[in-house]
Amino acid sequence: MNDQHSLNPLDNQSVGRSFLKYLIPSMLGMLLVALNITIDGIMVGNKLGSTALAGIGIASPVYTLFVAMSLWVGLGGATLYSQNMGAKDTRQARTAFSYSLTIIFIATLAIGVTSFVFRDALVYALGANAETYPFASDYLNVMLLFGFVFTIENALSVFVRNDGNPNLAMMAQITFALSNVVINFFVLYVLDLGVGGVAYGTILAAFLGLMVLLSHFFKKTNRLKLIRIRWNKKIVLAIIIIGFPSFLSEVGLSVFTISHNRTLEAIAGTDGVSAFALLNYVHSTVLLTFLGMGSAIQPLISYYHGAKQEEKKRRTIRIATATALGAGAVLLSIMQLAAMPIISLFGNFSDSVTEHAENGLRIFVMAYLFMGINFVMMTFYQSIGNVKMAVWITAAREMILMLIFIVVLPRFLGVNGVWLSVPLAECIVLMTIVIYYKKQAIRERVLPMNS
């Protein structure tokens, strides 16, 4: 059933204006989320100490899994939603939306309740010991039972952005970030409720963000609508396949962290690991900036692809890659010029830690020249349904090439080989993208690189 009763603003709005409309709120929202994570860690560490912080860190893979699931199904479904809206097939778009929220709710609840039954074994399997167990257990129990609130909020945010309301999605992120800081301050410093209270605070903040998102359904421009669905294997597989690169990207972050920690521990000991922790805090903020760029182009590319507006797809990619390159160059310059002041923000450290951190930061940030473009192109291929290329970009840069370099390079370059592994992986992945892109342009006469 096709529904052509209304014209989408993307049909007649300029590409540049549409890109800015999505880019600014996406990046601001992501940066606030990064700030929230940092402030949360500072409050817990100062009030409850390093053991409590370690306990939350041990339980955090469950939180990461839920984030990965919500992005997996949410972005897969939202891509189908926008493609169908571009094709003016409203019924099919709403089917993708309804399937996505249903899958996320059932999957999160099923995994959470099942894991809760085996929660003690799970806590120890994640790496808890006698000291960290109480804190990890308190945090984990809340997340397992109520994590569906967070996953629904996260996925709905993606759909609201795809339904032409990126500002409301940003407001929901702001609400979540600010309320989480306020609630957790109250929980920790006024009520003195500990780690369990912090977990409940995060869920409550997610619920408040969800309430903001639900206001979208009362707007005249709302096209999202839950409809009755019947099990359709083809739609479910499409959602899962298209969203898989986003899930893989979250898994890749864990691979990146674990591989660097283990290698640096072997080469440079605790000082090397501490230096990487500092670098990782800075990198997380930059990473969310690039993720914001990806979030900005996904609704546009998906819609233009569904509407067969090839010229708008070309122009969007040109603008997005230029923006990513410019942002990468600016970030690289800032890190090179202000490496020591940035490191000193996190506190006073031994000369060895500071030296490793400064050296690592100066080498590692070379990756930013390539990383933003790789993020944009991964999102582009995911948004048009070219999952194989999107998976290659994600797996190569975060796992395959990075792991090869981090195993081989330190044998010849020592600790510098560790810091170089990511820049080299990002550079080579970008080269493969350029080659593939140009071959596609020649074969299809579509999306020429220099058009």
From TrEMBL:
Task: Alphabetically list the UniProt keywords.
Answer: Antibiotic resistance, Cell membrane, Membrane, Transmembrane, Transmembrane helix, Transport
> In terms of one coarse class, where is the protein primarily found?
membrane
Single GO MF annotation: antiporter activity
An annotated GO cellular component of this protein is: plasma membrane
Q: Which InterPro entries match?
A: MATE_fam (IPR002528), MATE_MepA-like (IPR045070), MATE_MepA_subfamily (IPR051327), MdtK-like (IPR048279)
What the record says about family reads: Belongs to the multi antimicrobial extrusion (MATE) (TC 2.A.66.1) family. MepA subfamily.
> What residues form the membrane-spanning segments?
20-39, 51-75, 96-119, 139-160, 172-191, 197-214, 235-258, 278-301, 322-343, 363-381, 390-412, 418-437
Name this polypeptide is given = Multidrug export protein MepA
